[in-house]
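**User:** You know discrete backbone vocabularies at least as well as I do. Would you mind producing a protein record, from residues through to fold? Write it directly below this note and I will take it from there.

**Assistant:**
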Amino acid sequence: MSEALLKVEDLRTYFATEEGVVRAVDGISFEMRRGERRGVVGESGSGKSVTAMSIMGLIEPPAGDIVTGRIVFDGQNLLELSEDEMQSIRGGRIAMIFQDPMTALNPVYTIGDQLMETIVLHQKVSKAEAREIAIQALRDVQIPNAEHRLNDYPHQFSGGMRQRVMIAMGLSCSPDLLIADEPTTALDVTTQAQIMDLMLHLAEDRGTAVMLITHDLGVVAGFCDTVQVMYAGGIVESGTIDDIYHNPQHPYTWGLLGSMTRLDDATQHRLHSISGAPPSLIKLPEGCRFRPRCQFATDICRQVLPVLRPVGNAGQMAACHRSEELDLKALSVDGEVGAAASEVTS
């Protein structure tokens, strides 16, 4: 990893509804470096996908609006570009694998038509050249008989094969950044493992930075270099895999790790769950947004919204007033949560 490829600064993306303004992403800042593989985790509604859609320029007014912030990609603020300028980057230098492989592909066009459209648009090649590139892209994702399958329609592919097509489409123009939004949704565990292994090798071979949005902390542990934990539209903790999994500094991160089970652990114990539910993004609680669900909350947590600040090891950051005074491992019940978390990456 070298210089910063993507810098997101104080990004706020809101949606207008009849009930009020939904603050889906509310003041997040982070950066990614070239070749970095970053996992973005958190419960549904935490702002993961909206962050990705904001980067891709897919938030459409008046319902949705990026009200403040900067998204700087390779030195260029994407929010200052026209739609035509953004289209030259979207799908080319920044690509996205959407959440549901069953519906992401257009059912009335062949796989070849959909692959070649992206290639012709961004690589300025002839249709014949685009066809050869598309065939090679299908071969790269291990689809057999690629030259024949190019003429098939999405319904002729299984879920796992459709996801391979989506990966081929995303990587066909050798993007600098690939955003993968729940790329293994609705796939069985064996196919999930194959898809993630394929993405890992292709990203390494091409030097592509990957933002992996997922609920699966096990997938993140095996794929990513860094982790970004989101809650209620904000980032509550970020750091390396080792930092987050072995030395979490935010109670929410600890709660996510404590809810995981390990199939290779012979010890039987009850999994720990996070009490309560995420807050409404229309009426957020005062102070820390995780405070209503946190057993360690104090008066300052009720009054002041914590900001991301350096904690633990160099580069690790957390938004918690009590991170320096709390020893989450010591406070876990019977050490069970600590044992589970410390072995995730082993």
